[in-house]
Structure formats: structure tokens, C-alpha cells
């Protein structure tokens, strides 16, 4: 039965895009080598010194009317680092980035880029940054080459266009008008424009949102190559896999505040449960949508088991909580998630428990914990609204 | 400087590649010109409907009546009685009524006999001429309409003068070499073409700038440029240069089409004409920038611009002369830039006027330009 379920889980798991590097179940998942390399490099992330900071953000604060969009954000970004702002839509990522770029005036706090304060020497800041705005729009009727030459003319110094076209894989589109470019090509052009002045810091605001998986991979590749060349990059995203692959450090944001800031691995380690076991009950009614904090709400446990043998969710979660090794139990929609530090013990005990209780389960799969789990653990909500 | 040149060239490329815009900004004025030109230009020079009431019915009176028909200015219509003709005059169906009273032929022949002997080689028979009583005809016209009244008087005087001079064998001491008066006579198309150029400058710049800037702002195109080291002044200077080039070329195209199809001419200097094209472009561009800044959404920028330019198009002396409008409307219209732009273009093209006679137009347009530019730079925002 377990084997059967494992097989079933395997089929389910493949289309899902998840980063489970040391997990047998997702061994069939294709993964390109650069991503693997990127992950390997993570282990040698160096702790940087404060004097190497190219960006210093101190207590940035922004209000729109009565609504606080960014609530006292402080961090530093070191030279050569890829710094990620990860959070759901509306977390304040764009507002934070644009205050550093000098496009929005903060209502409090300060931001310095390469030592230049955005409030007092904005032109100097603009000279050393390159930005790709979340909703970049360009002159549709100009060609790729014309647009690049035009933006190059806005700066006292600019890089040659040829290598830039090569790097951004736009060489065969150079004579094509912007309106005929695909979403991915437009985004690469936006990055090419952002690099035209050879900036010290590159800002990428949700560079892969709305792109198909193929175009996303291409863009990741580009970002990783820039990183290899030592470009400092500040990147915002609401995809946890993207943040994990690309970023040296991640600043988890929610509702205008920083809720965590560390390397991806450290963030996951902070969960203290490296693995997660997921399963569903076959005829689970969606009725009891106890959120992630369901374990604490003992009052929801109904007095008796269901007539058909399947137990009520609250009761089941209480049982699961007591399996050895389990640190936390959550019910997301109709999927139960057990976080554990001891995968083997928990799994064995789980199967035993379910057999004893005569509960049928399906779609069993195990995986390592992700940044998404970190976010849910800290906020009680997912990164993406369902 | 680099940025200014690049932006100017880019903007010109955008103009050239935006077919829809080119159609609207060039085809439209040319279409208007052709349509109005062919519709209203058929009867050539202006003419006046007139009726000749011959109560004398002699050879002399018929001869006089036929002379009225040959002026080329009067369009003779038949009326049965004087009363009927006067009625038509009151209802503006006629512009002039000439009555040749009974006894006209008699007086004329008596007068001729008296003057005949004295008219020899010299012109010395003044006493004898005064002895006869001149024949009389009556003309009735609408004195409230200055244009038709002037034409009526001129036509009648020319005819009677001719008859008198022939009768007394008058030899003028000074002769005037007559040169084709017809060619100097202005027709509606001469009025229309400069108006069309003025209209084109207005709508290109007011509507064009307002729509484009508002849409660029909405789509974040301007915001992206704001995040570079580009200075707003370079951006605006490039916009101005590119639009001046576009308007200059379009004005020349419209003028050439007018010349080849309708034979209109530029009698004044092209330099003066160009000056007014430039100053008009700048004034209307600045107004366009203001509209783009004041509009809350890009969707509202176009209607606001249309709301401003549409009345100006019809009241500003583009298609119809301002003089024909009610007094109080004229007062308002005379404050508008379009009125002065179309008047200036018209004067330069039709009468060959120079700056000396166009300083009012120059001042008013210049004033609009400076005030609008000041407000435009004050209200301009990148986002
Ligand atoms: N110009 C603005 N006016 C009013 N509210 C805004 C404006 N820009 C952003 N917001 C609000 O501020 C919050 C943060 O927005 P944003 O920084 O764009 O978030 P993110 O980039 O993380 O999705 C959102 O709730 C958004 O609705
Ligand atoms: Mg955003």
C-alpha cells in the first residue's frame, strides 16, 4: 500500500516545480546543471564585511495616505552579492526598491548607493544604478538596437552594444521592433538597458513574473552569469524557488516589514525541520479548512470519529502531532503537511498509525522544507494568493 | 547634447513609423482642403446677385441692362416688378436692385445732343455739358452688409461711368493700363488653405502632444527615462525639435498640394510663414503639455484636447471668416491663438504681408506661447 502510494506520489510530484535536492522521490525531476551549480556555490557564501556595503538602507518608511506600504526597513547589500526581496504581492518590495533608486521619495529613513544619499545626490545615484522596473514600457516602434543607443546617450559613459546583445541573447532581434518581441525578450531587453551604463548595482523588480518556464530559466541563467562576473544585484520576486536559486541572501518581506533576513539555507534551517511529509485523504471534504495554525486550535476537535471510518481533521491532526519527530502539523486546503527533523522515524510511525486507525491516504510525498514553508511558518499565509 | 540628438532622431522615427498618426495628421487636413475646396470653390470669384428693372424699354435702356450683365461681378436675375425685386432684396435673395426709370432713353439722347458740338479735339465744353440734365437710374442695396454694398457700388459706378464717357467721347488725361484684376481677386480656396495649415498646427500639437505624453506617462515610459541621467530639458527640447520638423514638412506638403490643385500662392516671404509655423507650434505644444499634466488619466487627455481644439477649429477663422460672426463671439474668438495664427498665415500668403503689419498676431501668439510654456514647465511631471 505504501509502495503503491509512493508511485502515485511520484506521478503527482513531477509536474510540480520544487527544489528537493536530496530527496529520492523527485529524482526524476529534470534540473539543469547551472541550477545545481548555483546551489553548490551557496555553501561557500562568504559572510561579508560591513565596509564593503554598496547599498545601505536605514529605516525606510513610506505611506500612501493612511496606508503604510513600507514600515521602517533597514538592510545592507555587499559588493558582488545577489540580494533578494521575497514576499507576496503588496509586501512593499517595489516601493522599497524604488525608494533606493530615487524614483519614490521616502517619508522617513534614508538610502545610500555607493555612498551617495538618494536625497542629496540623486544624479550620482542614477549614474551608478541600472533599473528594470516592474512594469517597464518602451517605445514600441523603435528597434532593439535603436532603443539601446538611445538609452546609452542618456549617460556620460556607456558599454558597447554588441557584447550586451550577445549576453542578453538578443543578437538576432537587434533590427526587430520592440512591439514584436516576446515577453521574455522584452524582459531581457529591459535588463540590457539597465546594464547600458555599466552600473555598480542592478535592480531587477520581478524579472520573471508572467514568463513561461523556458523564458524563466533563460533569465535565471543570465542573472547567474552576471553574478559570476561580480555584479551586485537587488532582485525582487514572489517565487521562492527563484529566490533560492539566485540569491545569496534573502530578505523576507510581509506587509511592509522585514520578517527575516538570511541566506536561503539558514532561513530553512531556522525551521528546525528539514523535511516535510505531505498526504491527502481520499474523500476529504473541504469543510474543515483549519489554517496552518490548526494544531493550536484544539477546541475544533469534534467529539467522535466519522461514521465511514475517516476521522475528523482536528482529531487526526492531534494524532499526527504526537508521531515521533514531528515538529509541526498543518492542513493546507486538503493536504496535510508534517514537518519533521527525522524523516525515517516519522514516516515509519506515520504509516503504522494510519494502518492501525484504518485510515486510507493518498498522494503521499516527502520533500525538503522550502522558503515557502519558512514564510508560512512566520506569517501563517502562503507567498501566492490562491 | 548626445541625448537631445538621439531623442530627436528617435522621435522622428516614431513619427515615420506610426502610420495611423501620419494618416490622421496629414491625410485629414488634405482631405478637408480638397473637400471644402471643391465644394465651395466652383463659382470662382465672389459675385453678387442683382436684378435690373427696365421701366424705360428703349434701345438705350436695354443697352445699359446688357452692360450690367457683362461686368462679371453681377449675377443677373430676372424680376417682374420693382416691388418683387425689393422684396427679394429684403430677404437677402438679391444683393442689388437697379431701376432704369421711364424717360431714361430720352434724357440720355437730349443730353448727348447738347454735349455733342462742344466735344471737339479738346475737352472744353464744360458749360455746355452742364446745360443738359443727366439721365438718372436708381440703385437699391443692403447698406448693412459692407461687402456686398461695396461690390454693388463699384459695379454700378463702373457701368455708368463707361456709358457717360462714351457718350461725351471722353478722352482721359491719365490712362490706366489694366492688368488682370481677376488674378488678384481672392477666392474661397485662398481663404481656406492658410486656415487648414493653422488647423493642422493646432491639432497636431495640442491633441498630438496631450495624447502622446499622457499615454507615455501612463505606460511608465517617462518613468523609465526618469530613472536615467536624462535631463527633462533635453527631453522637452527634443520633442520640440522633432515636432517642428514634422509640422514644417506637413505645412509645406499642404501648401504644395494647394498650389498644384487649386493654384493658391504664397505671396509673402516663406521666412515669415515659417516664423508663424514655429511660434504656432510652440504655443500649441505648450498647451498640449498642460493638458497632459492636468488630465487625471490618459483616456481623459484626448477628450480634453478635443474639447479645446474643436470649437477653435470652427470659430477660429479656419473655415469661415471671423468677421461674419456675431459681435460678442468675435470678441472672444479674437483672444484665441488659432484666430491669430490663421489670420497671420492668411495675410502672409494672400496679401504678402510682413511683420510690420502682423505685429498684433505676433504679440498675441508670442504671449500665448510664453504663458503656456511657463504653466507647462510648472505642471510637468514624469509620472
Ligand atoms: N502609488 C501608490 N499609491 C497607493 N498605494 C500604493 C502605491 N504603490 C503601491 N501601493 C500599495 O502599497 C503596497 C505595497 O506595494 P508594492 O511596493 O508595489 O508591493 P510589491 O512590489 O511587494 O507587490 C500595496 O498594498 C500597494 O497597493
Ligand atoms: Mg512589486
TrEMBL record, chain B:
Keywords: Cell membrane, Membrane, Transmembrane, Transmembrane helix, Transport. PROSITE patterns: ABC_TM2. It is a multi-pass membrane protein. It comes from the Bacteria. InterPro entries: ABC-2_transporter, ABC2_TM, ABC2_TM_bact-type, ABC_2_transport. The chain crosses the membrane at residues 21-40, 191-214, 235-261, 273-292, 304-322, 358-380. It is found in: Cell membrane; Membrane. Its main location: membrane. Residues 157-383 form the ABC transmembrane type-2 domain. Belongs to the ABC-2 integral membrane protein family. This is Transport permease protein.
